[in-house]
Amino acid sequence: MIHLKGRLVLFVLPLLVLCFLSHEGAAFTYLSYPYGEKAGALDARSLGMGGTGVAFQGNALALSTNPACLAEIKSFGAACSIQLVKADEDRAFPYHDSFDGFVGYNTYAMNSNVYSKYAIGVVKAFKKPHMPSLSIAAYPLYDWNYDYFEEVRDESDLLIGKNVIENSKGVYAVSVGLAERVIPWLDLGVSLNFLNGDGQFERRSFGDTIIVLDRQDLDCDGLNFNLGAAAQVSRRVRLGLMYRSQANLEGTAKFSGKGIASPDSSRPLELTYPYSIAFGVEFRPRNDLTTRLNFDIKFTQWSKFEDKICQAVDFDDVWQFAAGVEHKFFVGVPFRFGFRYQPSYQDKEIITTAVSFGTGFSYQGFQIDFGGEVGTSTWRQEDLFPEGYYGGVERADKDRVKESLLRAMVSIGYQI
């Protein structure tokens, strides 16, 4: 066991250092600009099973997934997670032969960035009758992060300019929640989420002098709530249901840049993020070894998203699917595998697919889990920076964008 603890320290400490040296984020894709993406799994066990968890996530981070699951904790529990994500983006423009026939794509910008995020939660259960468990957690809700760099060269391959996008931060939540087992087979939970949005969006194009400089600084806050239920309908089947209300964020957006007359130009900011509802099933087959199958379905009504200043917002409703399996061998070490299918709310024809994997172990009340995920998506998009900035001719065809995400997460929980 001493050797095991030493290996754990060697793994966790470098991960902690990398998290504090890197940016915080999880959006990573320009396709989500400027409203971000909902943060995914915040627990390594959940990540390893495709991001499922509505029916089973029984630790203090369940406030973000299904607060009813907190009723599983008997006395006290604490959990934290740290995640690193490597995001690679390849942008290529189509090129044609002398007869205007399509030949292929030529990569002109490749970006690779590393981001991090973390979550923490605590829950206390009381042994008195009709006394619900009390919990608090802090975690990212929507992420606005995206970094892009592109060199612009002329026909002689001489560097004539650079294009840069730097988007950072996002919407974070501090949640307080209650959960109780109302009858032997039914748990109910509720959480109130205090939201704060803090972001910076900056675009720069420059050669010998700055051609374009645009920056927005956002600051907003709001409230929403989660309602959850978890039912053990039989020895082998457990169901979970979670509803997240819409979130109304209000604040200010300050503008600065080359074309802004006043350095303190600002406007009111009013964003309404949509509600979502998720349903999960956990099934335990009959076999000699412990196996759990999980399926989650989540609906988010992005068509109801509102930006009071930008009236042209038109998003698609999203159905997201996830599946995962956990299988424990005779030595008690679990193997986890999962799959996630998620369309983009800005274009439902653009799909992110990801496979995940993970494992973990227990030691004297501690639960240490490791999870990983590999995801890809491909789409077509217009050039982010007009060629006219540098005297070029605008491309008529859209660029091809390939994105790949590699996630690694460790979560540590303690329960008594």
Number of helices: 2
Under CATH, the homologous superfamily reads: Outer membrane protein transport protein (OMPP1/FadL/TodX)
Mean pLDDT: 87
Report the uncertain regions.
1-28
The first-to-last residue Cα distance is 21 Å
Shape: globular
How do the strands line up in the largest sheet? 3-4-5-7-8-9-10-13-14-16-17-18-19-20
DSSP strand content: over 45%
Beta strands, count: 20
Order of helices and strands: HEEHEEEEEEEEEEEEEEEEEE
What is the number of independent domains?
1
CATH architecture: Beta Barrel
The CATH topology corresponds to: Porin
How is the main sheet built? 14 strands, antiparallel, barrel
Radius of gyration: 23 Å
Percentage of residues assigned to helices: under 10%
- Provide the CATH top-level class: Mainly Beta
**What structural category arises from helix and sheet content?**
mainly beta
Features of the shown structure:
416 residues, mainly beta, Porin, 14-stranded antiparallel β-barrel, 2 helices, 6% helix, disordered N terminus
